[in-house]
Amino acid sequence: MRAVVIERPGGLDQLRLAEVPDPLPAAGEVLIDVAFAGCNWSDVQKRRGVYPDPVSYPAIIGLEVSGRIRAVGAGVRGLAAGDRVAALTGPRMLGGYAERVAVSAEYVMRLPDALPLDVGAAFPVVALTAYHLLRSAHRVRKGEVVLVHSIGGAVGLLLTQIATAFGATVLGTVGAAGKGDRARAFGADLVIDRSREDFVAAALAFTRGRGVDLVVDSLGADVLPRSFDALRPFGRVINIGEAAGYPDFPVRPKLYERSTALAGFELLHAGPGSARWRRGVRYVLSALAAGRLAVPIEGRYPLAEAAEMHRRLEARGVSGKLLLEPASGG
Known about the structure:
Number of strands: 15
Low-confidence stretches: none
Strand content: 25-35%
Distance between the termini: 13 Å
Helix content: 25-40%
Shape: globular
Structural class: alpha/beta
Radius of gyration: 20 Å
């Protein structure tokens, strides 16, 4: 099969199209003919060699796909050849930038007929991350105020929709003017341009000095420590990444300023295959099929243009998802 292979960490030139052996489904796995593969910031980190968890090279990156099941391994129940599915690519979160991928069955989600395959590859990471941030890592309540950094990105847009569906008020920050338009359309009450405004002052002004209940931070760097200043007493920051750089600050004194809390988040800790995981999948698939949730798709690329897809994501101008389309040729 064809796949995008990274021989060693580095720049865009490391994304190379190659012929590799077809994977075979082991016991408990299914083999998927990939229709679409989602592009995520963690893919960029793995290509660069800066992902927090170890990656062995050469590697095929890609952590979410959609397509049809080609074959099932021994012991798989409830899934069959021909089923339309979406999937995360397993605990190592690799292998999606290819024509076929073998995935453990608990990471596979059957798609409703109403849900197209491109949406099937666009939603798993962002929608399930948003759901579990707001229902597992934190239990969002009606009337709470949630501040989302990088609200114009795909995770931010899903956080906005799910938080407002549960009755919360959503504020957000963006790095440049115009990147918050979709977030406003999806229900955000205030979008703050960090390049021109002090987000702490803006959040405190919006809440009349009280502070927000929850901050979701994907940026790290100097944004993470300042986020505590926007919290109410006993509020919480959940950090989900460090797209702007690794944060380095004295955590304990910062927490004691307002008796606040800092948490991390990793999607797979929601337990693929568990009752908690299934609740999230049911909520997300039902909401997508009914039109209550939307995942904007900003571009589709053949395998040979994976580098262009990464280049566009790294330019930070995307408000939605980018997809690889292995079956499109190229």
